[in-house]
Amino acid sequence: MSTPKKIFFISFFFFSFFSFAQQNHGVTVIGQVVEKYGQTVPFATVVIEKTDLSMISDENGKFIFRNVKPGKHTIKVSAMGFSVFKKSIEVSGTSVNIPVHLDNELQELESVTVLGRSSVDKVNKQAYNVTAVDAKKLHNSTLDLAHALDRVSGVRFREAGGVGSRSELSINGFSGNQIKIFIDGVPMDNFGSSFQINNIPINLADRVEVYKGVVPIWLGGDALGGAVNIVTNSKPRTYVDASYSFGSFNTFKTAINAGYTSKSGFTTEINAFQNYSDNNYWVNVEAQNLETNQYYKETRVRRFHDNYHNETVIFNIGITGKKYADKLMFGFTAGQNKADIQTGARMEAVFGERYRRGNTLMPTLKYQVKDLFTKGLNVNVTGNFNFGYEQTVDTVNRRYNWFGQYVPRPGLGGEAERSLYKFKNNNGIATLNATYAIGERHSLLLNNTFNMFDRKGSDELYPESIAYQQPQKLQKNILAAAYKFDYNQKWSTSLFVKNYDLNTTLTRSYNPSGNWGDVAYVVLNDKSSNLGYGGASSYYLKQNLQLKASYEKSYRLPTSDEIFGNPNDNVQGNNNLKPESSNNINLGFSYQTSFNNVNALTFDINGIYRNSTDFIRSEFNNNQNKTVTVNLGGVRTKGIDGEIRYSYKKRFTSGLNMTYQDIRNMTKYEPEQNFVSYYYKDRLPNIPYLFGNLDATLFFDDVIKKGNNLSVGYNLLYVHSYYLYWPSSGTSSGKHDIPVQFKNDLNLVYTMANGKYNVALECQNLMDNELVDNFSLQKPSRAFYVKFRYFFNKSNK
What we know:
The protein has 797 residues and is mainly beta. Helices cover 4% and strands 54% of the residues. The N and C termini lie far apart (59 Å).
């Protein structure tokens, strides 16, 4: 029997056995935790003393204990900032309702709030190395999701330019496809170029979870070193959230999020957004005037061929709150985008006519149900299929310079390579999540994620070419099972196992006759299977001091773009890629404290160790006009990241985070070489190894009018210098490096009518410093933006 089948049948046996193990004896004890003004207290610790019954109240302060032995008991409730609640209760009958009212521990402690990430305490309490960003506190900013993540310790967002440019996230040394991105637990692998993390407005998210290293199995997939889960507000509600912003480089952004839920449970949701920018910001380059032949070693010019726009609509309709379905939603995502291509993989290649375009046409299904067949068995199923296309247009045979001048070249051709290649990836993803709670302490989890890819393409410039008729197919299936143990909310441990299956169909060309131009293809089917495993544990030494440790033997399967290439992103395919694997270890602790009634501090420190084999990284191809992914035999990463946050009442908050990562090439012998590699133990090039953020915000209440508030914020991004190429290559005076970078941002937000109307002013890159990323590609110069936002929620009208 194959390994996936073994895991499936073992998991099925556990679910079947335990579904009949629980008997409904005893009394149900329910309640809700509130403070003296009637506001709910989420995530309070609730214990029935002298029993093994304990839990944490949900986000609405509610709790429920089943099968409590009849008789007299003492219930104990505790939450940070409140006095401990104790009460003797008489348990009898079938159910007992216990109201819990907590008193503030200190007279003014209710005003002490560590604003920002710590407000999503439930996520941060997980055993995994995870940081949660409270996106709601950024809804008045013009940030997209990617730039919001750039302020998290251990995370770097790297992009090739301005709005809509190619981008990737890096988490503790892993980057690109090694990091998986999800929306509400659904992988974004197939969402297309119209729906990328750097064009999604922050208003779409309720919070964003960043998993560094080990990833929980309910986020299905083959992440090697981390994951980002964008969590939307999935509660049934009636609301409107609309915003519009404009600013430098002729940039305009619009976002509309709205939902309606009737008393019968009928629910409809719509999310729509658009981005437009000329991206004509200033860059410092080498250039030669084609009219005068004068050469400028460094000159400041505007980008002139970098227009970008995209429009996306997400529509869902269905029912919520039914016995057979807590949520059943059918949806459709439609989007389109067009992006001029200003440069190649480096700034030296300048284009004036080349562009790419694409669209997303994706039906979706979401189904969630609790207590399916038996209490404690929860199931979540999702599915989607993208019928959209991608295309790069390159038909003008010219050579451009940075002044916008060009020289025609003879014959047919293009600026990079003549092409009208248009393709559909026909990419679909289906996920299944099932959890079964065995009492209050034990639970089982099962996840299966299936991904299919079948590229079909053609080029009207070469209609007879058989190269475009060759199969490019890929199927991935990741099956995972886990066991979780919780003890009195002090100790939580998860153990899991994953099986990774990859099935690839591709072709390789050969010359059957030996004559020039004679090309034939042979079809190859490649299958691989790998088994991963790991665990995560968390322990509270005190209520406000948490220790964490996690380990995983993980695998990451090559993506379709890495194997087959992607003309839209200047990526050359490599069908010899092998899956990469890594042993990941995380250790960390977090501590929260308050003092003098009005001050609060949090500390988070995490250490990482990664030992990777067949590490997949990008480098230039032989012509240095595209990037290609290759396997590097061994890579070792050691690092540490930490964050300190301080708050004074609700008037001031500030935070500092820093990340250091030592990423070394541990490939001692290159293939087919019997001598030690010249780059052995070199730090990997083109990857920042020391960076951090500093932020500070002042809050002013009742400005001009009661209910109107003002905030003034500042953010500083620091990136230490690093080498563009291998440190051991070149002479000491001729090494190419990316210098130290500082990015200063200012923002001012004025909210009216308790947040119903909002206006934000922002200045990004205040000092107009030169900012660069992958292979010295420059990012936007100083920019100013204004954002208007309207928010209406029926429950708060």
